[in-house]
Amino acid sequence: KAYRTFPPDKTVVAWTGGKDSTTLLHLIRTAFNGRVPFPVMFNDSTMEFGEIYKFIKTLSKQWKLNLIVVPHLERDLEKFHKMKDPTKKKELSRIMKVNVIKDFVKKNGVKAFIAGIRWDEHESRSRETYFSKRENHTRIHPLLHFTEKDIWDYIQKFKVPYVNLYDKGYRSI
User: Fold this and answer.
1) Could you tell me the pTM of the whole model?
2) DSSP string of the chain?
3) For 5, left (φ over 0), alpha (ψ -120 to 50), or beta?
4) pLDDT at 172 (0 to 100)
5) What's the rounded Cα separation, in Å, for the pair 125 and 115?
6) What is d(CA 101, CA 154) in angstroms, rounded to the nearest whole number?
7) Chain segment 89-126, per-residue pLDDT in tens
8) Are 13 and 117 in contact (CB under 8 A)?
């Protein structure tokens, strides 16, 4: 529906390198005969694990993604690095992700932003809808109904690549 509703060049898929967003990319590739017809945005905090950067680089080449790496805003990074309180730093890191998305969407005239969030991840996401209108774009959430178990079952069934940090005990990246 998103493909028919929004121009593909004004639609962006968010990719973190994590299990959910990689599953989302796999679903899109499956729907479009092995290709992703939208640009793919990697929201780069500049502080990701090395394994994430390696995974993003490798898979984006293998899957021939139109990858756009968008670093966090300089003003946010400066504030983050000066901050001492770990609780405030954690909150700021969430705000930084949102700020760079808003900036990217506005500067690039993005009309649809596809993200791999799930209802079971956090209470705040439990009220999200598949098509969620924002001020100047629409967020599209195809994985809302998936559970964490559904994601792992999908990955196993379809042999979707995933970053090796999960094998080291990480549940969320």
Assistant:
1) 0.93
2) -HHHHS-GGGEEEE--SSHHHHHHHHHHHHHTTT---S-EEEEE-S---HHHHHHHHHHHHHTT--EEEEEPPHHHHHHHHH---HHHHHHHHHHHHHHHHHHHHHHHT--EEE----TTT-GGGTT--SEEE-SSSEEE-TTTT--HHHHHHHHHHHT----GGGGGT-S--
3) alpha
4) 87
5) 12
6) 27
7) 999 998 999 999 999 999 999 999 999 999 998 888 88
8) no
